[in-house]
Design goal:
47% helix; 374 residues; TIM Barrel; alpha/beta; 3-stranded parallel β-sheet; 6-stranded parallel β-sheet; 9% strand; single chain; 9 strands
Length: 374
């Protein structure tokens, strides 16, 4: 049983009776931040912890918990991360999810050496592509890369797009404390923009230089630390002028934008004030306001944020075409949260955009029509 289903809620409370084409729902439910990990990568992570070869505290905290398998929650997540078949499909059916956009879970390949990271990204992508071929109506994939080798990462983005049929790129936060605003990583942006394929910037635990106070309070993970690090990462990308250099680049961010939509006014005001003050060498003028890049180059998903006021606020300030559904499987497998989304105060057409059409547009998905099945 899933950890979030222990309250006695029915597994089908997400509305599996409203499957595509049946009465009452004429759109697909596409979940867009759904994780997996091949057993080979999990075995590598475990060995790194056991032999002490990678003692980063965030890595040990995150991976150590989920690979130890000592609690019901960690056992469920550990098992489901490695499954790209019947168990995952059964969970999707129970929650009324028609399709998952699947990507390599954090910290991905980004804690490995350059060569090992490139090899593991290739393996993970091949494994995911096999699953997408087996279940073409249920799974779509994002290309995993090893940013520690930017040129190899750019080539893998091309392979994922051209050969494997993937619909975007996954980057799991920082790479050993280095962020994508560093121009050394910009071949990744160049490849993604050229192929018109989005980058999903997924969280991981903050790096060694900032995790201390969060870790000692138990706040280093999804409760807060993920948002702190990822929100900062997005701002670094914006203020470094990445979107000026790559105006066609599309960035997808989970958890309703890691709180950034709620800061739009202050971000614009304080960015302008800081640039005028010439206080920081790193803070140079950019062509537009931070909020404009967030509205034009960034999409947000509802992963882990099944809360109507926040979802409606983000639709209001970013635009209804910028918000799309995600579950955050298997970490937050709570079928009742599907019902929360279905109960949002919006029209059927707006729900169709939230659950299906926005995902199709940003990821370039080709799905069957929910009403006709074609």
């Amino acid at each position: 049983m899933a950890p979030d289903m222990l309250s006695g809620e029915s597994p089908g409370s997400g509305g599996s009776e409203g499957s595509p084409g049946s009465a009452g729902r004429q759109y697909l439910r596409i979940a867009t931040e759904e994780a997996f990990a091949p057993p080979e990568l999990i075995a590598t992570w475990r060995a790194m912890i056991e032999n002490g070869s990678y003692d980063d505290p965030g890595f040990v905290s995150l991976v150590g918990f989920y690979t130890a398998g000592k609690t019901e929650r960690s056992k469920f997540v550990f098992d489901r991360l490695q499954d790209l078949g019947e168990e995952r499909l059964a969970d999707m059916d129970a929650a009324g999810i028609d399709r998952q956009v699947v990507s390599l879970t954090a910290p991905g390949t980004q804690v490995l050496s350059r060569a090992d990271g490139v090899a593991m990204a290739t393996l993970a992508n091949d494994r995911l592509a096999d699953a997408c071929r087996r279940y073409p109506d249920r799974f779509s994939g994002l290309t995993a890369i090893a940013p520690q080798d930017p040129n190899a990462a750019a080539k893998e983005i091309e392979r994922g797009h051209d050969e494997l049929g993937f619909n975007g790129v996954i980057v799991n936060a920082h790479t050993n404390g280095r962020y994508l605003d560093d121009p050394a990583f910009w071949p990744i942006f160049e490849a993604a923009e050229a192929l018109e394929t989005p980058i999903y910037l997924h969280p991981s635990t903050p790096p060694r230089a900032m995790i201390g106070p969060l870790l000692e309070a138990g706040l280093d993970g999804a409760i807060y630390g993920f948002a702190v690090d990822t929100g900062m990462h997005v701002l670094r990308i914006i203020t470094a002028g990445v979107f000026d250099r790559f105006p066609g680049l599309r960035l997808v961010v989970g958890h309703l934008g890691e709180a950034l939509p709620f800061w739009l006014y202050r971000l614009d005001y304080m960015h302008a004030a800081t640039v005028r003050a010439q206080r920081y060498e790193s803070m140079k003028p950019i062509q537009r306001k931070p909020s404009e890049y967030l509205r034009d180059n960034v999409w947000v998903t509802t992963s882990g944020m099944a809360w109507a006021p926040a979802i409606m606020f983000c639709r209001d300030v970013l635009g209804p075409d910028r918000v799309l559904y995600a579950m955050d499987y298997p970490y937050q497998y709570a079928p009742a949260e599907v019902t929360t989304h279905e109960s949002l105060p919006m029209t059927t057409a707006a729900k169709a955009d939230l659950f299906q059409h926005n995902a199709e547009r940003v990821f370039g998905l080709r799905t069957r029509d929910a009403a006709t099945g074609q």
